Amino acid sequence: MTSHLHALDIDANDPPLLARFWAGLLGWEVSDETDDGIVLLPGDDTGFRIRFLPNPARKTVQNPMHFDLTSTSLDDQRDVVARALALGGRHIDVGQTPEDEHVVLADPEGNEFCVIEPGNNFLADCGFIGALACDGSQAVGYFWSKALGWPLVWDQDQETAIRSPHGGPKFTWGGPPMMPRDGHRLRFDLAPPAHGDQQAEIDRLVELGATRVDTSAAGTGWVTMADPDGNEFRVLTPR
């Protein structure tokens, strides 16, 4: 059995602030609040939690992944944007053109996300979080498909997308050119099967093309690895 995606971790200067923003925007429940971070539990079929971890370093570059939020009508799109702004978000410019119908925003710490226009066929059967859009190669899309056991739902012109068999958002990779891999503020937490063998899962991921980043993770509860594009992720200790 493969690992499952347990959480998307987001580094935050102020975890409670970001948790309040995203809980209000997504309608998710704040589950745990400790010195180690704050967890949001999905109220839909997203299938993984979001965890905000304290990190004093400031965000300085564009994130290599962001949420694409869906809308059902132009009024709904405007309402989602208005709700995000009321919660502390802001409009940002990442190079979009006046012809683009999606709206690009950032949360209170500058993490980018988009509110997609209604009628987007690619996200038509997805929930409010339509996609986690990632900067990355075709090879890394293949890697995550095998790592998570999620089928490819798009593979064309070096662009790939995968989706859990249980539904939820699509994970997409846009192909080249790619951003520098500086400042890992978002990362995946993988949980091996219950009572599984963490080392066996690490070995499997290495065979798929991952590398082990840390060599002294004793007592942390996880092992840090990197996918073929150099994006860090963590393999948790089985429980």
TrEMBL record:
Q: Which Pfam families match?
A: Glyoxalase_6
Could you list the residue ranges forming a coiled coil in this record?
none
Which InterPro entries does the record associate with it? Glyas_Bleomycin-R_OHBP_Dase, Glyoxalase_6, VOC_core
PROSITE patterns of this UniProt entry? VOC
Q: Which Gene3D superfamilies match?
A: 2,3-Dihydroxybiphenyl 1,2-Dioxygenase, domain 1
Q: Which residues form the VOC domain?
A: 4-118, 125-238
**Entry protein name:** VOC domain-containing protein
Organism for this UniProt entry: Streptomyces gardneri
